[in-house]
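Appendix B. One record, verbatim.
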Amino acid sequence: MSSTDAAHAARLALERLWPREAFFDVLERYVALLLEANARVNLTRVIEPDAIARLHLLDALAALTLIGARGPIRAADLGSGGGVPGLVLAIARPEIAWTLVDSVGKKAAILRDFADQLSLENVSVVAERAETLGRDAAHRERYDLVTARACAPLPVLAELALPLLEQGGQLLAWKGPLAADDPEVRAGNGVSSLLGGGEPRLVDAGHAALGGHRFVTIDKLTPTPPRFPRRPGEPARRPLG
């Protein structure tokens, strides 16, 4: 099956899972670009149309209700990889200025090419580590929303994301079937308070096709202390808490 045919099949599968939206035409073109690029660079292991519709497109779009309630102006997506969820959400919410962040230069270049080919004027791409951006005045505490999917355990993700959020902003993380008493959530709670964040909240994804996937949200309440984030790589090597 060609990338174009697979993209159309994925679009039809998505229409069975989600009410048809005007931006589905752009999503279909994005999927074709993703599959074409994936033949050259490993961006995703999910290549079957039904799986793309469920695990990439629906999984990203499930966050629209949460994002819609906030109405952010500037958003950053950490570890954007092949563009999920950041590029999908940028297609769905063109009024938001999205910064897609990936530390791998080759992946960042592909994301720029995707944005150019899809004429997404609300998307910019940064090839940098989140720890570095968190100490850059152009990015530190500048975002209303930070999103991340399959990026890092919650204590690590909190240190990467919270320095980027302005007060009143929110971290929105895609997670599996976490429970409130899960060790990851408990550890994330302690780290969040250290970094100026509130208590992590769990929100069901709201779609049976996504199984037990949940979102974790953390509100930014106070400024992050200047010593955070630590040097690149240290949050993962030596998680706080």
